[in-house]
Amino acid sequence: SPMHLFLFSMVVVVYTLAMAGNTAMVLLIWADARLHTPMYFLLSQLSFLDIFFTSVTVPKMIAGFLFGWTSISFVGCGAQMFFFMFLGAAECLLLALMAYDRYVAICNPLRYPSLMSHQTCLLMVAASWLGGSINASVQTALTLQFPYCGSRKIAHFFCEVPSLLRLACADTAAYEQVLFVTGVVVLLLPIAFITTSYALILAAVLGMHSVEGRQKALATCSSHLTVVNLFYGPLVYTYMLPASYHSPGQDDVVSIFYTVLTPMLNPVIYSLRNKEVTGAMKKVIGKCRVGRTA
Hints:
Layout: H1 2-31, H2 38-55, H3 58-67, H4 74-107, H5 112-115, H6 118-144, H7 161-165, H8 173-206, H9 211-240, H10 248-272, H11 275-293
């Protein structure tokens, strides 16, 4: 049908742009020595996570559109859910740590090299991956231990905890409370950390005498805040609001934001107002043109 074709085309285009944009960001930061700083190292890790995060769900969705492969094995469903929860939680934690990086850079610039050493950055990334893996292991194990009888048709385009719990043939109230607690740890605590960091940053920026320094700080922070809102907002709706607030149709629309749209928009948001990234891109494009003319 025309609608089927339109949706398929949109998913393919957005996924392709997300993969291309994030891959380009990783390669650009790796190739340009001027971008070998803690902020851009963390940004490259965010792009790296986005590449895998969107690839957990979208290729299966595309295969479903093309070949009608709408079924998935129980093991496959569990694997998809694990990696989705793992990468999603890791990204939540990494975004919070990126706010700390901005706080140190703006509020404590003299100690920035020592506080944000390369070893510290590696530990921050490792902590986000470890936190994501623990979250995913707990959530996946608890979700799959329920009996699933009757209809096994998931009213969603991938295996996500809320959609699976609707099919469980047992009382899930206790587990939903556990899910809420993990949501507080993975979502609300990082949001509180980010909010506190940016409140301190705002106070420091308002005290700056240099207009140029103030504009540069606000441009960098606004990019990160935009990404935070796009990613955390839909996740809070999905995992923190009671089941009575949800419907399968609404969940499908909301999940599109954090599975496809946000990974596509992240490289664009971070590069639009960033002179260092745009400068590095122009440098690479210039080299390509020189290579062709030679």
